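Contributing new records

If you add data, match the layout below exactly. Sequence lines come first and carry their own label; structure lines follow with theirs. Keep one chain per record. Anything else will be rejected by the validation script.
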Amino acid sequence: MDIQRLILLFIFGFSMLMLWEGWDREHRPKPTPQTQNAQQSQGVPVPAAPAAPGQPAAPDAKPAAPAVPAVEPQARGETVRVTTDLVVAEIDTLGGTLKRLELLRHKDSEDEKKNLVLLRQDHHYEAQSGIAGEGGPNHRTLWRVLPGERSLAEGAERVEVRLAAQGRDGLEVQKVYTFRRDSYVVDVSLELRNPRPQAVTAYAYFQLTHDGKPLADANTLAHSFGAQSYIGFALYSKEHAFEKVPPSDLDKNKEHTTRADNGWLAFVQHYFVSAWLPRDGTRDYIMEKRQDGTYAGRVLIPVQVAGGASASVTVPLYSGPQEKRRLEGAAPGLDLVVDYGWLTVIAWPLFWLLEKYHALSGNWGVAIILLTVTIKLIFFPLSAASYKSMAKMKLVTPRLQKIRETYGDDRQKMNQAMMELYKTEKINPLGGCFPIVVQIPVFIALYWVLLAAIELRHAPFMLWIHDLAALDPYYVLPILMTVTMVLQTRMNPVPPDPVQAKVMQFMPFVFSIFFFFFPAGLVLYWLVNNVLSIAQQWQIQRMFDRDKPAHAKR
């Protein structure tokens, strides 16, 4: 089997698999929603029942269902707008909720003149917090904003926004948002004061909500081929490692609860993530589908407040791009949200090398070219062996054709004569297969790297390529890719079977269609790889052409 045919078969099979997965994901039957209690329909969390004194907490303890203070229908909040060097945040005093987060260094997928809005109300994507249970106040309470700065001043390292509210039991709470320079981490603190003489056990919650629908970045043409990135909740702890909890799981099970003393809870989408990063201490992670069809994932933390005393709990919120450096600095294991598929072990070294080449060249397109050359050099010995085998096959093709004509009616004798010819000329008919099989995992891993790395999003290359993560707007790279595939096909041995030869002649045009729907960065990689392969194959073919008489013996 020649190497070009195997490449094309691999691309076809891989593309068909992605198409089937994408179709199945979109058309699989949805389970019928189940009825939930009134508190869940309001989206207000309830605390887990505390363990008896001296007894360990049950790992799967289910929350109780205390009454929740309702908001008056006429209540209206005001919007507090906060500006830093990286974000513009909007906090609604009705609930004290972070309801909108605009990223100043990332552009919208559909309109690059606008900044990308990560937290947004059209997807019910919000960061909510408060005190669970009857005591409140919660994300349906009307909070009062306290005076203070609303913009990060020049030379300042942080800016705070304070809101205050009081629960029904007299518990006084201040919610504090702390934004810092050059950071997508926002510290969210709940400062509690208990004016009563009796001690109070409160439960602070920090939750992310979403409607579970893909955003613009997850709807590109490339993703329609089954490469759709994950969208949903993710959970990390030392005991359970990294775990994805997609909306479809919550549709079936309604609730996912985990108790731990470490880790984080996130909502992940293509290129971006929001994650609550609680510090050490017991907490419950709860994810559920609410009656209104939206999803909620929360961290529930017990807080003990002595009579006449104060206490506080702070949970940082990372809400921003999936940049490896920032994720690693925010929390252990948070970089795992970058979705490199099932070949992550290969993808991470490839991305590391890609970053090094970008630091050297300052251009991600050039970095892709340098990475392609590096991979080609690593596999050079295998490729050379493959092309040598193909060159030998091409030289003996006339003799193979003669054998087929001679023994056309006796397939056993024909196969025996062909094997004797291979043995005489020291040709392995499968010699071109192994090298490409070894390279298949590298191709798949790089495919996911180029799809998942936010560093390539809106990253220009040169001339008309302004976004390596998007399609080539004029399809120049896919056309050049088609040309190289046709050229490679013509350099390969012609199959003895006329029908098969005809199929191979048109196959490059058929498979090139897929590259018209791949990101420009991936097409650039494969184009450069093809050009290098053609040069290598041409040189090896020249070497064997000089020995043609020796291989053409009758």
